[in-house]
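User: Can you recover a sequence for this backbone? Please restate the input before giving your answer.

Assistant: Of course. Working from this structure:
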């Protein structure tokens, strides 16, 4: 077979290609200009050195604008840098958890995910790319730092002189020793989900005439998975899936599944004719939101409820949970489940990457974050579809003996039962988006100082301080230390408030204030979270002088 010519194309470094653990995110217009993407990809291969030579890698993304052109650039660079085989999702599609699943299933060296997650897409919106390693986990800082280093000196692009590959049909195309295999983006992932869940059990629920669900793909990538899974496999009527045709610009929407941005679903679920179950996923399919009939489940409660029911309702967990984990600002409902089950519960900094080591070491089965991320150790990314199927498994299990037309146990009942058993952790997050950076940094500094001088027993209104600190995490597996992860004031009854600055914003600063209060008394668990938390919210705002520092007297988003 003819050998492939590798062209050495001169290039010059482009500033600002610093890569975080969510990869590199910029405006799509920036990425699609000149060698911007090619420089970064070449730098990744330079950082990997010989590691990826002769290996197989995976490529896919959330279907946003520029993914198709980007795929061709990446394929040529992969070939030019000695990769032996690329598995590509058809049409360049792979939701983030599916990409993680494909890397694992195909024993690939790693993979590229083209996505800017929940950020809007289109020529004037965002684009992004990240690299995941062989267990399907996002690349660690060591490698992202190395990539950044190479972006500052890159001078040659090694590009194979091969034609564009047709990504619209599955099959293998060979160019000399290099091969591209276009794969069905659903297949490997579906196979894995079938190993995790009892599809017959879920089908028994979704095919009943008296149960209705609505899944909103928000015009993003989970649209490609919704029909094959919910309709074709699980017997739900096609009308159960809405906005399920992936669009390059997500139909102009902001595909972030929360009460603000998933407003279409929220309207339906909080109406007189609401379905029994509602769910949405984000742009790349790793986040999720769970709703019942006129009921919202906080992500902190969701992961706790899934964990509490996992062994009974989900075959993958039938021999028990290895451990649980949540990010620090996530409410501690999960800790109570862990205590009940007698398993370890880890409190990690914000960011999914901290769960990977625990999973690889066999110490964490289920984990979640307040930022609408829920998942398990079947992959190394958070998994929106998994969370939806986990909830459907619980609902199906609980209703398997309820005759059609009988009173179904709903999301609200399951949540309220959970609170009755474990207590309710009221939780709310206030976001102050688009603030000026300097005053926000000054506010966090001042809070840090206040926390350092605060003493056990200090009074804050009716609350008595247990401790205050700036959260620090020592990874129990590799001993690495993450400092300054959020200033928290924790009270003797377990209530707390936390302040941190978002690590994912693209301009200015976003202050996040997290408020949590525990309520064991069943008769007091039914009140609205904002009402229950009002006194503590006031104390947090007073302690932080937030209004003075930021000039804001109201948050931009409340969850
Ligand atoms: C991304 C990460 C999550 C993280 C979230 C919020 O989605 O994958 O792990 O919880 O961002 O981060 P932020 O720093 O904006 O609060
Ligand atoms: Zn995402």
């Amino acid at each position: 077979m003819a050998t492939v010519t590798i062209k050495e194309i001169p290039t010059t470094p482009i500033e600002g290609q610093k890569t975080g653990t969510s990869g590199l995110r910029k405006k799509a217009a920036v990425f699609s200009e000149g060698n911007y993407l090619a420089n970064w990809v070449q730098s990744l291969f330079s950082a990997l050195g010989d590691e990826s030579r002769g290996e197989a890698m995976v490529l896919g993304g959330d279907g946003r604008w520029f993914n198709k052109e980007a795929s061709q650039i990446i394929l040529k660079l992969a070939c030019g840098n000695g990769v032996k085989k690329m598995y590509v999702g058809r049409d360049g599609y792979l939701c983030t958890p599916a990409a993680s699943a494909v890397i694992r299933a195909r024993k690939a060296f790693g993979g590229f995910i083209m996505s800017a997650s929940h950020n809007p897409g289109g020529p004037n919106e965002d684009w992004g790319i990240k690299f995941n390693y062989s267990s399907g986990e996002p690349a660690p800082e060591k490698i992202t730092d190395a990539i950044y280093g190479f972006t500052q000196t890159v001078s040659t692009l090694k590009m194979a002189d091969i034609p564009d590959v047709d990504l619209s049909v599955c099959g293998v195309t060979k160019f000399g020793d290099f091969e591209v295999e276009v794969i069905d983006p659903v297949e490997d992932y579906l196979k894995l989900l079938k190993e995790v869940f009892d599809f017959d059990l879920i089908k028994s629920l979704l095919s009943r005439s008296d149960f209705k669900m609505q899944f909103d793909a928000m015009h993003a990538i989970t649209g490609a998975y919704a029909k094959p899974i919910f309709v074709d496999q699980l017997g739900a009527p096609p009308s159960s899936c809405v906005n399920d045709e992936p669009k390059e610009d997500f139909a102009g929407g902001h595909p972030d599944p929360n009460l603000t941005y998933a407003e279409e679903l929220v309207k339906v679920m909080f109406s007189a004719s609401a379905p029994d179950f509602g769910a949405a996923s984000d742009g790349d399919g790793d986040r999720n939101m769970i709703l019942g009939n006129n009921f919202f489940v906080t992500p902190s409660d969701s992961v706790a409820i899934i964990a509490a029911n996992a062994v009974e309702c989900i075959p993958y967990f039938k021999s028990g949970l290895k451990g649980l984990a949540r990010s620090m600002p996530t409410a501690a409902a999960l800790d109570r489940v862990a205590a009940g089950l007698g398993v370890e519960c880890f409190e990690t900094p914000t960011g999914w990457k901290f769960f990977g080591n625990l999973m690889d070491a066999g110490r964490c089965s289920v984990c979640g974050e307040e930022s609408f991320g829920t998942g398990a150790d079947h992959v190394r990314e958070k998994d929106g579809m998994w969370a939806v199927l986990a909830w459907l498994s619980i609902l199906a299990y609980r209703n398997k003996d309820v005759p059609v037309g009988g009173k179904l146990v709903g999301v609200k009942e399951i949540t309220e039962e959970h609170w009755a058993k474990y207590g309710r952790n009221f939780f709310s997050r206030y976001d102050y988006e688009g603030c000026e950076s300097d005053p926000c940094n000054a506010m966090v500094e001042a809070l840090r100082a206040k926390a350092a001088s605060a003493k056990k027993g200090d009074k804050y209104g009716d609350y008595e301080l247990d401790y205050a600190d700036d959260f620090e995490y020592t990874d129990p597996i590799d001993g690495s230390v993450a400092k300054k992860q959020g200033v928290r004031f924790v009270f003797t009854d377990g209530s707390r408030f936390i302040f941190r600055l978002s690590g994912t914003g693209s301009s200015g600063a976003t202050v996040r204030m997290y408020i949590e209060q525990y309520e064991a008394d069943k008769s007091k668990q039914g009140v609205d979270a904002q009402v229950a938390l009002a006194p503590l919210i006031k104390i947090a705002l007073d302690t932080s002088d937030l209004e003075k520092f930021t000039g804001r007297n109201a948050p931009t988003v409340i969850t």
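That completes the design. The longest helix spans residues 437-453.
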